[in-house]
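Quick note —
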Amino acid sequence: MGIVYEVQMKNLAFLSFLALSCAYACDSLDNKPNTPSWIDKKRAQMNAALKKGDCQSSCFSDESVAAFTWMKDFFAKNNLVGSAFTNYIFFGDDYQQAFKIGDRSYTFFYSRGETRQKGGEQKDSLCLGISFQKQVFKGFCLEGFNQLELSSADGANSVGFTLSKKTPPTPTTPARKTSIYLAFQLSEGSFYLSHFSNHQQVFYNQPNSKQIPLSAINNALLARLQSHPQNTPLEVQILEINTQTYSISNQISANTNCVAITEGKTLRTQRAHFCMEGVGVVHAIYNEGYLTLEFSKTLSTPIKRQFYLTFKLRGYNDFYLHQYSAQNLKINADGSNQVLGSQIIYRQDRDDPNNQNPITLDSLQDDYQAKLLALCQKRGYCM
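Predicted structure written out below.
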């Protein structure tokens, strides 16, 4: 685990700046004194830059300052300040991760807040931002979550985040984890919401839409989308494998099927979230150590296309891609199927015989289809 900094605030004043471990590795905090003076100086520099027009209104020059400032402002906006509250902000090198959109490198980062009220329960919150070429652009702040991870980045124009609320067990209740998934597409230099779902339902699925920018996300907006979803509920299939419960759900758009796989009945963990292009509904089959996801779609009567992702179970609950194949079928008048053509796009013992680069279920990202097909074509197995 990386090094995390804790900033304690009370009555909106910094009382202490405490390193929970040794020196922080990021240049943005290197050699800074343990007082708020450097933060005040940074804010003054940013305000001067804004007046000169050197930076957009949502831009900061330092991820750490931005992360602390947004959370501090979020506490004030939500009336979580005063003598009855003690607030904490957490930020460190574990709270940021790089990703690529095309040939450009971005970094997402976030801060985590805790509000402790005398005689009341703890409230959790997260603030997220994205930096590009030393400019930091504000994302959003949400109450009710204490974990955030980069769960997908397709390398083309989208990035996805899983936000979770993890509740520890008590003497009378088990541990719980509830999650939502948010995806954003990059368009003309800005990120816009393209997908919002939980493990049971899709609330918003508008690829290529520029209706909701990243900075507009808040709890009220998500509540409205949940109350008036723009999609039908996910189709969910349940499988029992080695006494473990897996939920496999999919949301189908015009030419894409996005699949989410979660593990567990009460404490659910997302194992995978990826999309298949050019396919329709998914059907999951488990048989003697192999999990197969079968995608099918009618191209034009009576021609049907099917894709198969087959994963091999190793150990208790580790799945590795064994084979990825495709075929076109003709549906005859009597209902029987005639195979018109098929190809094995990837097979582990053919393409990685020494098992040096195994592909795990949770490592699939939205560009894996194109990469595996290109590899197959390069090696002469695919047309």
